[in-house]
Specification:
about 70 residues
């Protein structure tokens, strides 16, 4: 997907009104980086690969998963 369509849809109003906006700025940053990395990997990404890429995000991934913002 990333090669055929080199961007992902980002709707500002959905982001500003969504659950992610209730989280702190670090967690929001992790979320958008995960979205970009997920898209870059053609929507095929494991949790272990994600943790290798971003080594200090364990807490943020737990928050995003617990709040059902991402599916693990």
């Amino acid at each position: 997907m990333a090669k055929e369509l080199p961007y992902f849809k980002f709707v500002i109003s959905e982001y500003l009104n969504g659950d992610i906006y209730l989280e702190d700025y670090r967690t929001q940053g992790v979320f958008i980086n995960v979205c970009a990395y997920y898209w870059h990997n053609s929507c095929d990404l494991t949790l272990s690969k994600l943790k290798k890429k971003y080594r200090d995000i364990e807490e943020e991934i737990t928050i995003l998963s617990k709040e059902k913002i991402i599916k693990v």
